[in-house]
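Any chance you could type out some protein's one-letter sequence along with its backbone structure tokens so I can compare the two?
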Amino acid sequence: MAVNNGSFVISLDFELMWGVRDVVTKQSYGEHIRGVHQAIPSLLNYFNNYSVKATFATVGFLFFKNKTELLANLPSTIPAYDNSNLSPYGKYIENEVIESYPEDPYHYGWHLLKLVQLAGVHEIGTHTFSHYYCLEKGQSLEAFEADINKAVYVAQQNDIAITSIVFPRNQVNDDYLQVCKNAGIQVYRGTENSWIYSARSFKNESIVRRMVRLLDAYINLSGHHCYTMASLIQPNGMVNIPSSRFLRPYTSFLKQWEALRLRRITRAMTHAAKNGLVYHLWWHPHNFGINQQENLSFLQKVLEHYQLLHQKYAFNSLTMSELSATLLKNNEK
């Protein structure tokens, strides 16, 4: 990849119920989670059709085939959140997790990870082992280190080398980056450079920020959030590829504004392609768990625009670790 070419990065926070269990239930959100088992094969087909690569940032729990395996591989130190509801350990696993898939489509994703592996072009990164919250009170550096080491270990047992991380709820904790680096992780997804996207604990999130973020998905309030290659390399030697845009799922009550949502994304992509910048789009597979036709149709338009930019400006699709490796290699010269 020429350093003056722009890059298109997609990352997916692959978590199933592990990522939302503290805010929703199977009864209220189960359809979204069950739909992931159809959404990921569809996403892989779309990515293949448009020659696009993606990084699947995966919760470590999803590597297990059954509950027995999961319980045998828990880390020695687990987070002691002040709010016990944030922890998936203990009673949650005991009461909510069934022995295996397909009886439990909410907590098992090993078969989907194999599809990603078989595609041969995508990256499997980590979303921590347990969907670990790095800015919540009660957790510690020691517990985070145990979590990350276990995430790397279980991936290695499946012939996967973890070199990228997406922090759950985008709770990037700068104090924890050295732990990631020590574990062989070279790149992470940071947040956009705006007060409405800065990393915060769940308790410190506000309705105002959420509302402004919603508006920003349709109207350019905070900028394109495209990044120069040089700005991504951090003083600690890691690479930060911040988010450019969360691909919000289709909702019927906002369907009249879909053209604005698409234009918000494609204009920023064009800006990145013309100027040799990085554009980083992300979402969760469960965002496509319902309204799949509408969500895939929207994604298709984004991918079609990517192909146009690739042909005209040599805009390249890269995984997080591919871009990171290229940047670090060029930085050594």
